[in-house]
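re: ur question from the group chat, yeah i did fold both. here u go
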Amino acid sequence: MSEQQSSSSSPAAHQALHAAMSNGIPPRFDLPCKLPDRAEIVTANVLKLAEEVPNPRLRFVLQTLIKHLHGFVNETNLETEEWMAAIQFLTRVGQTCTPVRQEMILLSDVLGVSALMNSLNSPFKGRATENTVLGPFFTDDTAHVESGETIASEGKGEYMYVEGRVVTTEGKPIPDAVIDTWEADSDGFYDTQYADRSHPDCRGRLRSAQDGSFAFRAIVPTPYPIPGDGPVGELLLLMGRHNMRPSHLHVMVQAPGYHKLITAFYPEGCTYLQSDSVFGVKESLVVKLEQVSDEEEARKRGFPNGNSFKLMRLEIKLLTNEQFKTYRALSSE
């Protein structure tokens, strides 16, 4: 058997041939124009084809995307070289993603899309804890910690103790809520940014107690740069924008019957609070850190060294799923 014959009969070759076959959907003959030789006909034909999408919501989203995307190309009179540069940029963004690095989310973040989406999906200001951007550094690869235990290994930063309660909008405790938390170390890096990472660090998962309370040891958050070694970093340089984020602690809370909360808490006084590179800061999420200078209290809280630590107190209010649906529907009217 020749080398060409062997290659064409390989599993990969068969898979490629199968992917290149017709999907069996017959052609449409009722388009506005059979031959789209003018710009407006191209758009009309694509929109007509989108009418066949069976799911009403998906149909609406795709039709709106097509209108705005085609409108953008028309409004900017996009040139072929510019289009290709954009394609290559988005390709690089995708290729930069790994199981522990999300460059696509980072792109959404720096363009304000993540913040905008969060604002549209947070129609409950004043009623519950507000959400904010997830960021590109969340992973399911995390360790479970018991109440009062640490999420950070020794030497990662200045001691901080976090305590609080998870409650309903009426102030009733929510027991057994799953709380994920993660943060950068004092050098401004998440554990996933270290090439020699062997285990999760500065991140943990715990559950609220019967009275809704929770507590864990962490480190005082510090400002840090979002990754500048990829295409998103290059984009910020082209736009003349800094790549710094204000100090913050990420928190995600889930409980049966309640709307999932993705948020972060920002210690007051940080230089970058009003110029966050991903537009994530909300006034209600800015918190005060208390200074505790008491060696006995530090040991009681589990800190092995020193005689002081910072204290972050939180009250996390969750919406029920029904409350969220109601508020979301009202905001859409």
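okk and heres the other one u asked abt
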Amino acid sequence: MRVRRSEPVLVHAAAAAADEEEYYYLSNLDQNVAVVMKTVHVFSPSGERPAGDDAATVIMAALGRVLVHYYPFEGSLVVSADDGRLSVRNDRRGVPFVVADADCELEEIGDVVKAPDAAVQAQLVFVRGNSEEKAPLLTVQLTRFRCGGFVLGLAMNHCLADGVAAAEFLRSWAETARGVSLSAPPFLDRTVLRTRTSPTVAFPHEEFAEMEDVSGLADLRDEPRVHRAFTIDAPRLARLKRQTAARSTFVALTAFVWRATACATRMRPEQRSRLMFAVDVRRRVDPPLPRGFCGNAVVFACCVSAAGDLLAAPVSEAARSVQDAIGRTDDAFVRSAIDHIEVARARAPSMTATTLVTAWNRLGFHTADFGWGEAAQSGPAELPRGEVVMFMRDARDGSMVVLLGLPQSCMQAFQDMVDLL
């Protein structure tokens, strides 16, 4: 596939927001995630739209209108010289919007989400600048295909939104394109997650701790890294849930992946192995966050075990640890995590001996309908970095796709464990 890009057009909010201030506050939960989150959303040709309707024209115009509600998205990221905190300067820099044309039909590129080709994904998302701090907070590329379908590619700075908020932005944008009222107008005030007047750290917060490498894991970084997507069909998922006695597919699959990565990377029995996964806290804090909260409202739940104990025990023990970690994520834990970042100036730790699970199957990106129907495919537009493992659901048959990268010498061991399911 070859893609020809036009020059970027800067899209600005159609009107100034009434409550817009010079600087926009970012909470402690936004501070450690100033990385670019790339997504693609594939829309099949639609016979319902008039032939003269051009997706690029409609969607670009709708972006200007929805930015009135999401005005920080066209600002720029700044770092305080006093304390190093990030905030958004509302300088109305604009959102670069690129229209591109591909020399093929959509069906020729296959599934760009669950069977990703990095070279194809790179052509579907426009990224400007090589520094997350200096790059635009949001860029858009709409790629038209010969069949009449198109792909919407977004590059969004994660400090703007977590997965839930990013999906709500996409749906609001799509509703604007269809000319309907926003079903969930954004709540932009992130001070509801501000640290307490007297910060109190009441939990150990091992999610920020550094893990000692006693297994020679650092040597594996010199190996070529290979990525693979594993499809776990519905019967195997049901069997895994029975084995783990888990309440949910997420708990069962996360427990399995934690053990499988510890085994595949040949951790020594005494190696402390850590599992981390994001928990949405919108309904877990007291009072709950307002509907439409726009920002990062996740904390990382954490499980730690000696690798020998993790692998010697049945997978149901790992599942119990995962469920317990979810249960601990209440208002007291969330407030303590926010205060810990403030007190310790905690930044994201190294990922030594860590497996980080992200569940894309729960976010609902695919439900955004710009007038051409819901997305046929929707999800991440880049291969997982480092120790990240992505979960995605195949809506056609209920299977789950596990996408991860491992050092070359480790992938077969992971494959062998999947085969035993």
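fwiw on the second one: The longest helix spans residues 163-178. The two ends are 36 Å apart (CA to CA). idk if thats what u expected
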